[in-house]
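Appendix C: a fully annotated inverse folding record. The material below is reproduced so that readers can follow the format used throughout the book. The structure is listed first as tokens, followed by the designed sequence.
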């Protein structure tokens, strides 16, 4: 049986996330079809979801106006995996520190937008990530910092600040794991997260 993935396609690196999901699924021996999400009604059929970067104010506004926001909350409440990257992390958080962002509140962290931007707009760093045996080449672009971590696990830090976290079925990263050929973060979030349920996989077992 094939899995169904969704990539929130309001903005951002949609094709790159879709390609990374396909590579990670193949590496874990799964067939998958990836759908772009611009309207409500698709998320309920998805086994796993990615929410790309972009501009968090725009993404959160459109998720709410299109009725996609409650569907993503229900997806997470059902224990299905969500990978939220950069602006996606900001939108998924419980506090974006900016009134223009209406958070989904599915990832128990507070963030500061553009926190790494004052030092350098973008950079790549070799990250030690819990669960990965070799460093991950992480690309940061006007990245948010994770300020406080509530009921969530820190998977990686850079410059003494958390940059990857897991809260049950949700993994959030400050960086862009879709921008390198290395799909291990997608693998970790979707196929190696014991706190997340991928229903089609369970039905098969
Ligand atoms: N600076 C963006 C924001 O605050 C995030 C940047 C990104 O997703 N690359 O929404």
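Designed amino acids, in order:
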């Amino acid at each position: 049986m094939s899995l169904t993935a969704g990539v929130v396609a309001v903005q951002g690196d949609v094709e790159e996330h879709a390609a990374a999901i396909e590579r990670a699924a193949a590496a874990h021996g799964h067939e998958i079809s990836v759908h772009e999400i611009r309207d409500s009604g698709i998320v309920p059929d998805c086994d796993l979801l990615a929410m790309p970067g972009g501009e968090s104010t725009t993404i959160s506004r459109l998720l709410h106006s299109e009725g996609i926001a409650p569907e993503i909350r229900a997806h997470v409440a059902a224990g299905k995996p969500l990978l939220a990257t950069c602006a996606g992390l900001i939108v998924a958080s419980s506090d974006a520190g900016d009134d223009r962002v209406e958070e989904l509140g599915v990832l128990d962290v507070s963030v500061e937008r553009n926190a790494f931007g004052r030092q350098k707009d973008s950079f790549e760093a070799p990250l030690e990530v819990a669960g990965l045996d070799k460093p991950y080449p992480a690309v940061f672009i006007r990245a948010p910092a994770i300020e406080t971590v509530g009921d969530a696990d820190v998977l990686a830090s850079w410059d003494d600040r958390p940059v990857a976290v897991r809260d049950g079925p949700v993994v959030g990263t400050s960086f862009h794991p879709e921008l390198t050929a290395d799909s291990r973060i997608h693998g970790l979030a979707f196929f190696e997260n014991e706190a997340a349920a991928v229903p089609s996989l369970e039905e098969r077992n």
